[in-house]
Amino acid sequence: MSDSDATRQPEQETRTGLNQEGNTSGFDAMAEQIRAEQKNSRRKRVLIVVDTLLICALSALIAILVRAFLVTPLRITGDSMEKVLHNGDIVLLSKVTLRKRDPGRYEVVVASKPEGKGHVVKRVIALPGEVIYADRDGLIHIYGHYENGQYSGEIELLEQYTYATTYRGKLGTEDDPLILADDEFFLLGDNRPVSKDSRFYGPFRRENLIGIAVYRIFPLTRFGKID
Predict the structure, then answer these.
(1) Which residues of 84-99 are buried (b: 16+ CB within 10 A; e: fewer)?
(2) CA distances (Å), 53 to each of 44, 45, 47, 50, 59, in order?
(3) Domain boundary residue among 51, 70, 89?
(4) In angstroms, rounded to a whole number, what is the distance separating the alpha carbons of residues 113 and 115?
(5) 190 with 121, same domain?
(6) Same domain (yes/no): 60, 122
(7) For the whole model, what pTM was predicted?
(8) Same domain for 133 and 169
């Protein structure tokens, strides 16, 4: 072997070792980069899941708060409020309005039944402190005051709300009228022959009122404010 061959062989071995070492370092760097990307990808997926859960929880909370304190949809069952509300209609019930003020005469309200099971959807006919009775013909009379057999402050109802057909129930008579307390409302259904209302349950207390029905939202063909 010549001196030149002996000299080239160590140089080649040195370059080979360097190349192998460089390649190893490159693979390690690539592997580290891949691991880092996978870790970031997992972190992103976890963040997406957490964000989704937070959004769902927040949406549910908002829905609960809206239903509890502002408005809530309610499906009408039965025919006691025809022809204004029909069986299957969905109305929007305002709770915040009821917290701000008492319902007015002729407004449609939702109230829990006195025995605490279920609710009714009826129209306000007489207000707290008023006097109400039905005469022999079933005609409803409302006054602002009654004392010593004398009535005063007669309140004229719209014609379609003057008749208490089928039964008088707890309406009272001319000689023995029903006098509402300061927190009582007398509610009647528009479809009197089939309505189970204050004639059956008696007056509804303010605390029994749940909300005021303000809009019909279904069916869409009859969408709008409730008369």
Answers:
(1) bbeeebbbbbbbeebe
(2) 14, 12, 10, 5, 10
(3) 70
(4) 5
(5) yes
(6) no
(7) 0.71
(8) yes
Q: What is the CATH number of the domain that holds 195?
A: 2.10.109.10
| Same domain assignment for residues 210 and 131 | yes
Per the rule left: phi > 0, alpha: psi between -120 and 50, beta: everything else, 151 is: beta
What is the rounded average pLDDT for all residues in the chain? 82
Considering 50, 70, 90, which residue would you say is the last residue of a domain? 70
What tokens does 67 get?
Answer: 């239903």
Same domain, 145 and 40: no
**Are 133 and 141 in contact, with CB atoms under 8 Å apart?**
yes
- Tens-place pLDDT, residues 139-154: 999 999 999 999 999 9
93 and 181 both lie in a single domain? yes
Same domain, 174 and 105: yes
Strand duo 108-112 + 119-126: pairing? antiparallel
Q: Which of helix, strand or coil describes residue 194?
A: helix
Q: Are 76 and 90 in contact (CB under 8 A)?
A: yes
Instruction: List the helix and strand counts (H, then E) for the chain.
Output: 3, 12
Residue 56 to residue 45: CA distance in whole angstroms: 17
Domain, as residue range, for 115:
76-225
Residue identified by tokens 């039944």 is 113
pLDDT for res 55: 59
Write the pLDDT tens digit of every residue in 123-178: 999 999 999 999 988 899 999 999 999 999 999 999 889 887 778 889 999 999 99
183 and 191 in contact (C-beta within 8 Å)? no
